[in-house]
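Subject: Sanity check before I submit

Could someone independently write out the structure tokens for this chain? I want to compare against mine line by line before I put it in a report. The sequence has 278 residues.
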Amino acid sequence: MQPERSDSASTDPTVHRHHSSLSSVASAARLLKEFAGDRQEMGVTEAARRLGLGKSTAHRLLNTLTEERLLERDPRTGAYRLGLAMYVLGRSVSTYSVLHEVCVPVMDQLRAATKAAVQVSVLDGREVVYVERRETAATLRMFGRIGHRFEANCTGSGKLLLAFLPVEQLDVLLDGWDLATRTEQSVADPAVLRAQLAEIRERGWAENFSETESEVGSVAAPIHDADGAVVAAISVVVPTEDLTRDSLKRYSRPCMDAAAAISRRLGYRPPTNERQQP
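---
Independent answer below. Compare away.
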């Protein structure tokens, strides 16, 4: 005898909302895929027909995706097309899919030359995310896994990536940011952070002396893509027990050279008059 099935899930409003949300996400994904290939624009009626949805539902999907900048609406024709956010996401996929391939050999060389741990990280909002790492025996227990996050203002890599953001993006991030602190050395004052970011952008590299962990120092340099945008940072990480702030700076030149090597592999060609001094 089969156990009697409960139909509580079908009457549970929470479950219903969950399935409804998933259905909306699936419909939005299908709608975005409809713009692939030669199809540049689409109106509400055509979107509804292609997805097999009512026009009101299709209209809500299009409006929501437009609000998130995944789509944009032509005010003249009323048709929708892929928006700026999709372009940015596409560039990110293209860049990060090759980042691993091009950076790993250079990271190995930098670790061998400095006898220090090496990391590559990217910026995600107000956090820095570590996407590649090469450890040493001295630093093996200092960090979490690849994919670990830190507040960007508390790390050399994070400050480096903030410094090279377009001014408009940086202003948006700094507006209302209640800066987190991990140690007594962490930057908690927005005015101080702005001053540091300006200095980092000017000299081309960043340092962190006990701002993330009390016994860790680092130097970070920018990785550029083929268009010149800073898409990642490479950093050298060392224990501070045998370092001073001045001695930490000796890692800036090899770190900058490694960043330049990775940038060249990504297709970046710096202006002929560009000079960066450690």
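---
OP: Matches mine. For the report I'm noting this point. The mean pLDDT is 83.
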